[in-house]
Write a structure and sequence with these properties.
Alpha-Beta Plaits, 8 strands, single chain, globular, 6 helices
Length: 223
């Protein structure tokens, strides 16, 4: 799938290269108008593992918003990503032209792991939880500290939570991406802990805007 501005990207199926440190995360969200064509186009992204600096990609369908697709791709650095966008992207993306609308794409720099040992690997997960926030400028460091000291330990200790990351973008924007073994295990974590953790972390004081989604992963989109 394509999205211009912050970047243009596709959505897909393969084996990611080994994860070895710094990473750029691209999150794409769109409304699909031709599901069969869109999914057919996803297969064209199987060539991504040959791109220098590519670390992995996966995605799927929103559990909360019918017809909304999410794709997450990972690159070793901004330089490798920019090179891919300039050389190969448009050719790969052409197969999905006209199959979606309202695409939004954002780039985030990996700041720290949620749990430990993050890898851009989707094969053992069924669900991804994505939370996107914009934070008051004078509360950015407090928000990041609470993510590290309050939210991370709670998520890392939850059965079924596999791995995740905390990413940052210009404009005081942040992404929390977490991978879960099942929707039921993620749902149990939310029901038991989220309201209490939000109070402890003073989330309402930090946040200007907060959106999120739960994504059912499509194995055929994993590259």
């Amino acid at each position: 799938m394509v999205s211009r501005g912050v970047g243009r990207e596709g959505l897909m199926g393969g084996i990611p290269a080994p994860y070895d440190g710094a990473v750029l995360v691209k999150w794409i969200r769109c409304t699909v108008v031709d599901r069969r064509g869109f999914e057919r186009g996803q297969r064209k992204w199987a060539g991504l593992p040959g791109e220098p600096g590519f670390r992995g990609q996966g995605g799927g369908w929103s559990r909360l918003r019918p017809g909304v697709a999410h794709v997450f791709s990972f690159w070793e650095s901004r330089a490798f990503y920019d090179s891919f966008m300039a050389r190969s992207h448009d050719r790969l993306a052409a197969a999905q032209s006209g199959t979606f609308k309202g695409a939004q794409a954002k780039l985030f720099d990996h700041r720290f792991d949620v749990k430990t040992g993050f890898e851009p690997r989707f094969t053992d997960a069924d669900v991804v939880r994505v939370a996107h926030s914009r934070i008051r400028e004078d509360r950015v460091e407090h928000y990041a500290l609470m993510q590290e000291k309050v939210w991370n330990p709670a998520m890392a200790g939850s059965p079924g939570m596999l791995r995740g990351l905390f990413g940052e973008a210009p404009g005081n924007e942040f992404l929390v991406l977490s991978m879960w073994r099942s929707a039921a295990e993620h749902g149990k974590y939310r029901a038991e802990r989220v309201e209490r953790l939000a109070l402890r972390a003073q989330l309402a004081t930090d946040v200007v805007a907060l959106t999120g989604d739960v994504v059912d992963l499509e194995p055929a989109w994993t590259v």
